[in-house]
């Protein structure tokens, strides 16, 4: 079980909420500490709450009957997860597990209604968040259906890179996100490194240039 604590309820201002719409969860809900590789929720369990990641990282995965795993998403601090199944009230179609020590806030229905009563704009913010999740999943389906393996990997890397161009994922994690085998990902990364497009080193990859073609908007 993770430890639970409360964060100081300071700075409850409109400016802070405009910058971070989920600030109200920090101010009203307990924070739970999760260890590395700890399950947050499991596939096929009933969704009675959703989550807000305060610190650390979480991976959202889909498991197949034969034990295979596909990574749907990596959750970064400041993002919600598990909200889709929560709102339709059905069983979860994915699982969530921490990749490192993490601080997570869970929000159930009574708590959500309380937060919306305190800040009505929260309802619209949640709709925007759900729309973003749908857009992300649609982009993944598009990539799986129409992009070659190298295009899929390169688009993924550029989407995950930080401001310094770093992607701190293992080959296995990249493979899970791209829907490819680890062998294929290793081959693609070797080709990109030989072309000078990425630099491989301890702790991850560094991107050197933008992909040749960009997605049209």
TrEMBL record:
Every copy of the Cyclic nucleotide-binding domain together lies at: 34-116
Q: Which GO terms describe its molecular function?
A: DNA binding; DNA-binding transcription factor activity
Keyword DNA-binding attached: yes
Instruction: Identify the Gene3D superfamilies for this entry.
Output: Jelly Rolls (2.60.120.10)
- Matches recorded under SUPFAM superfamilies: cAMP-binding domain-like, Winged helix' DNA-binding domain
Return the CDD domains for the record: CAP_ED
Keyword list, A-Z:
DNA-binding, Transcription, Transcription regulation
GO cellular component terms, alphabetically, are: cytosol
Q: Does the keyword Iron apply?
A: no
* The HTH crp-type domain, residue ranges: 147-211
Q: What is this protein called?
A: Crp/Fnr family transcriptional regulator
């Amino acid at each position: 079980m993770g430890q639970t604590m409360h964060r100081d309820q300071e700075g409850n201002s409109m400016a802070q909420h405009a910058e971070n719409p989920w600030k109200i969860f920090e101010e009203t809900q307990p924070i739970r500490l999760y260890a590395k590789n700890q399950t947050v929720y499991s596939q096929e369990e009933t969704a009675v709450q959703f989550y807000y990641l305060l610190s650390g990282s979480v991976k959202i995965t889909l498991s197949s009957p034969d034990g295979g795993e596909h990574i749907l998403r990596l959750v970064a601090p400041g993002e919600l997860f598990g909200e889709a199944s929560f709102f339709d009230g059905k069983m979860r179609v994915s699982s969530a597990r921490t990749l490192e020590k993490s601080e997570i806030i869970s929000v159930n229905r009574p708590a959500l209604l309380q937060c919306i009563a305190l800040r009505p704009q929260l309802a619209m913010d949640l709709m925007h968040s759900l729309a973003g999740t749908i857009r992300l999943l649609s982009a993944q389906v598009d990539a799986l259906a129409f992009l070659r393996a190298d295009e899929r990997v390169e688009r993924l890397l550029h989407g995950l890179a930080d401001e310094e161009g770093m992607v701190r994922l293992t080959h296995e994690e990249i493979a899970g996100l791209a829907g490819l085998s680890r062998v294929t990902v290793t081959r693609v990364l070797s080709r990109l490194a030989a072309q000078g497009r990425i630099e491989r080193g301890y702790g991850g990859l560094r991107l050197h240039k933008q992909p040749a073609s960009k997605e049209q908007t």
